[in-house]
Design a protein that fits this description.
single chain; 235 residues; Rossmann fold; seven-stranded mixed sheet; two-stranded antiparallel ribbon
Length: 235
């Protein structure tokens, strides 16, 4: 399998770790470049950011239209009838990016997997099952997929890996209740979940960017810095 096409940049020489950031349905890595740039300005230590582009596939809920998607969605109740094949295919593709970082001298415990919406679902899928300890998982406006298999497939190496989940209380795309159920499942299985919610829809906000920056500081290290006061609001 070839590596996913992706954007990549570092915020300085000799990065101390890598953040692999997955976009949402119908988007691309370019769609989150602004927020990742804001994170780069907020964090004092240099970090490598990788923003892969999902493969183009037919999405059933969108009348079969072809678009970038980490997996198919079959119905409005997005957690029903999960596209297991597509989810596992995307999991393997992201794990290839993690392996490539290893080839470049970045240990897995210096890698954070992060994502928005569908990308958040893939970040959880990868982060909880990867066989080697990762630094952290960031799931923004997302939810657990294939949760019935997590108890048997979850990696012991990542049982204590910090997880940050953020969500909008008025999200019409990934309902707040679904994300809360995912959080409850994770906590029931013994995972450490930091939770933040905001009075917004299916998007990111500046306050959320500050929280993500603080999380990355905690799991990747670096000298403390004042968080960016950002007015970013991404769809």
């Amino acid at each position: 399998m070839d590596l996913l096409p992706h954007l990549e940049f570092t915020t300085g020489a000799d990065p101390i770790g890598t953040v692999i950031w997955m976009h949402g349905l119908g988007d691309s890595g370019w769609g989150h470049l602004t927020v990742v740039n804001a994170l780069g300005q907020a964090l004092p230590a240099p970090i490598r950011y990788i923003l892969p582009h999902a493969p183009v596939r037919s999405v059933t809920i969108n009348n079969g239209a072809q678009m970038p998607a980490w997996y198919d969605i079959a119905m409005n109740d997005i957690a029903r009838l999960p596209d297991e094949g597509g989810i596992r295919q995307s999991q393997a593709a992201v794990q290839q990016l993690i392996a490539r970082e290893g080839d470049r001298g970045v240990d897995p415990d210096r890698i954070v997997v992060a994502g928005f919406s569908q990308g958040a679902a893939i970040a959880l899928q990868v982060g909880l099952r990867h066989p080697e300890r990762l630094a952290g998982v960031v799931a923004l406006s997302g939810y657990l997929t294939l949760e019935d298999s997590l108890a048997r497939e979850g990696s012991a190496a990542n049982k204590a890996t910090p997880i940050l989940m953020c969500h909008g209380t008025r999200d019409p795309v990934v309902p707040l209740q679904l994300a809360q159920q995912s959080r409850a499942t994770l906590e029931r299985l013994g995972y450490q979940v930091a939770w933040e919610d905001y009075p917004m829809e299916h998007q990111l906000c500046g306050e959320e960017v500050e929280v993500i920056a603080e999380f990355l500081l905690q799991v990747l290290g670096g000298a403390p810095a004042a968080p960016a006061r950002s007015s970013i609001l991404l769809p």
